[in-house]
Amino acid sequence: MKNITDSFLSLGYEESAGSFGFNTDILATNPINISVVLGVLIFFGKGVLNDLLDNRKQRILSTIRNSEELRRGAIEQLERARTRLQKVEMEADEYRINGYSEIEQEKRNLINATFDSLEQLENYKNETLIFEQQRAINQVRQRVFQQALQGALGTLNSCLTSELHARTISANIGILSANIGILGTVEEKRD
Does the structure show a pLDDT above 90 at 59? Predict the structure, then answer.
């Protein structure tokens, strides 16, 4: 714990100034920060992410099954339409003399309506799948972020002791005092 704190604050005396100060060496502090955040994310987010992905997978599979049922229903409608078409064709032969053109028009309308219905069902299935995938991805992202944030806050709160808190405040007061003193001497030299 002391090593982590020392990485963020320089608690030793500087040779020339003789005061406390922040460690501004980015190369020394960023790897520690990144490793802590990644460790927390991996530790706390792995199980949650697996559960969320499994749940989403089941929902997506359920949506696919529902879409397949809709597809089967559309195929059954197509088969009924074909049977009806055959019936219409047989009736067309019988009524050819009286209204061949009207029957042909009905045949075309029936085929077009069936294909339009199938196309709409296929589009609906595709849109549903895309929507469910996007919603799953967004929910997983949001939950992983929330879990990681809660885990990181919990870890930080459990690591922050009153002694560490007092040391941090004392170090910051020392830095502020030193900076005010340095600014005063710089302004006096200018005058």
Answer: yes
